[in-house]
Each structure stands twice: as C-alpha cells, then as structure tokens.
Design a protein that fits this description.
Helix content is 50%, strand content 15%. It has 225 residues and is of the alpha/beta class.
Length: 225
C-alpha cells in the first residue's frame, strides 16, 4: 500500500470514529473543558458503560486524552486541531441545512421553479419510454441500486458529460431523498444548457421503500407482490 493510500485509510478510520452522534456530543462537551466520565454520561444522557465505551473509541483514535485525579478519570481533547475540526463540521452542517431550508422555501414560494415530478407521473412516463432517468449519486451508490434504466452521472461530472444525455427528451434527475440538493443542482445545470429537466419529488430511498423495481449493477431486483 502506497503512502497516499495509507493516508486515505487513516482518514477513513478517523471519519468512522466520528460517525456517531454520541461521540460527537461527547467531544462537544469535552471541548468546553475537562470532564469526568460520570459527568459526560450525565450530560449526554448515556449510561456510564455506554459513555465509557464511546470515550474509549475516541481515545484510541487520539481525539481525547485522560488523566486520573484521585478516583476520577478526567477527559480532555487530544493534541492537534480537534476543536477547529469540530467547528468545521458544525459549519458544514449549517451550510447543508441552509441549502435544504432554501430549497424547501423556494419550492413553497415558487412551486413552478423546481417542477418536481411525482413518482406516479414518472412511472407513467417510464412506461411510455418518454423520459431519461439521471442518477446523480456516486458510482458506488448507483451500483448498489438505482431506478431501472437510469444513467449514472455524478453531479460533479455533469458539465463535462452532457453529451451522454439526449437533447430532445425530458430528463428526470434524482438522488437520495426528497431534499437531496444534488438533484436540484443537476436540474439547474441541465436547464442552463437548454435541456428539459425536472427532479424526482422523492429520491431513491423512497422509491425502494415503496416496493418498486430496483436495478443493481448486475441484475434487476423485483420486490414481488
């Protein structure tokens, strides 16, 4: 394994450690000052055993350090730019929430602007073969499951791969969920290039939950009756 790949694996490990709401809550409290495990468990509404388990994960990854004071074990942030990392995560979460809020507000005040297509209408157009489905999620998500016949062009590749889309057929873009901003960005980009485009009102997760057919990279999954 080369140095770059090792670095990526380390980043993935750190991301997995932080990919837990309880651990992030614990870090937020520890960032405000050194605290005992008992106090941290109280602040996060966790059992002592559960809090201790999450803290051990954080400690192994270097996010926290400990010291003993009498019978108490006190936790503090580890070395390195951990506090700025927490701030960056909060800022990004706020950014995403703001985009989703804007999307909801825009769809309410200007319902024609986004022109979402319902699942029922999409099924009708699919039966008539009068629509092109565009999945703007990542390649690995697409491989795990997608709407039948969909073309996969991740949204960040859309501008340079426009030639792969039909110029005279309506395009319906979709991503993960109803308020996934990827499909909104895709529709805006397609319309800017003169293509007729809409977004699916519901994303792939809702489609699958409704028991509709799903294709994978190798087969079509029919949920049956």
């Amino acid at each position: 394994m080369n140095t770059h790949q090792t670095h990526i694996e380390t980043l993935a490990l750190l991301a997995r450690t932080l990919g837990n709401a309880h651990r992030l809550a614990l870090l937020e409290h520890i960032a405000q000052g050194e605290r005992s495990v008992e106090r941290l468990a109280e602040l996060t509404d966790l059992s002592l055993a559960n809090a201790s388990q999450h803290l051990q994960h954080l400690k192994r990854a270097g996010f926290v350090q400990t010291r003993r004071e009498g019978k108490n074990v006190l936790y503090r942030l580890g070395t390195g730019p951990i506090a700025p990392l927490l701030v960056a995560l909060r800022d990004y979460a706020d950014h995403q929430q703001a985009r989703i809020h804007d999307l909801v507000a825009d769809s309410r005040s200007h319902p024609a602007r986004l022109e979402p297509i319902s699942r029922e209408e999409l099924l009708r157009r699919m039966s008539e073969e009068s629509v092109t489905l565009l999945d703007v999620r990542s390649e690995d998500e697409f491989a795990l499951g997608h709407l039948p016949g969909a073309i996969n062009i991740p949204v960040e590749e859309l501008e340079r791969r426009l030639a792969e889309l039909p110029a005279k057929q309506n395009i319906v873009a979709y991503c993960r969920s109803p308020y996934c901003v990827l499909s909104v960005d895709a529709v805006a980009a397609l319309r800017a290039h003169g293509l007729a485009a809409q977004r699916l009102a519901n994303g792939f997760v809702d489609w699958k939950a409704a028991g509709l057919d799903v294709e994978t990279a190798t087969r079509v999954y029919d949920p049956g009756p």
